[in-house]
Amino acid sequence: MGTPRWARRFFEEVVMRHTGKRECLRWPYATNHKGYAQIGDWANSKRRSVLVGALICERLYGPAQPGHEHRHSCGKGHLACATPAHVSWSTHKTNMSDMKKHGTQPDTCGESNGRHKITERQANTIFKAKGLQREIAARYGIDRSQVGRIKQRKSWPHIHKGGRQ
Ligand SMILES: [Zn+2]
After folding, report:
1. pTM of the entire structure?
2. How far apart are CA 105 and CA 131, in angstroms?
3. Could you give all domains of the chain from N- to C-terminal order, each with its CATH number?
4. 24 CA distance to ligand 1 middle (Å)
């Protein structure tokens, strides 16, 4: 059905008119699997979703340059922040160092990281699993890149050392 009209209205009338700078305006509608606000792209006849932060940037600053993505200066993008004053276009690299600063880097290793959906045992199994990374990812309901990082020992670097103790 495309985008619900109330989400569109909220975007136009609340988000784009929001002038507050301190507090995050939270997007009350759909989010992606990482918690980022998203909305159906009504300008495009194809049925797809765009990130609200990116849409705000597009409105404020024009389309993204190649290699740019939207950045939340507040570090709360994963908490559905939809605050015009908090978003800007930036390079992937800047985003990554932001994430480190804000402690929201998606893949620091270990079970203590709340964002990890897999257990150490599963990471161990994934590390040993045979087959395409895409298929392994689907099996565990995680991102293909996460499988890649486990395989390359970038995530869970300790698991291959004799497995669980
Ligand atoms: Zn924010």
Report:
1. 0.56
2. 27
3. 5-102 (3.90.75), 107-159 (no CATH)
4. 4
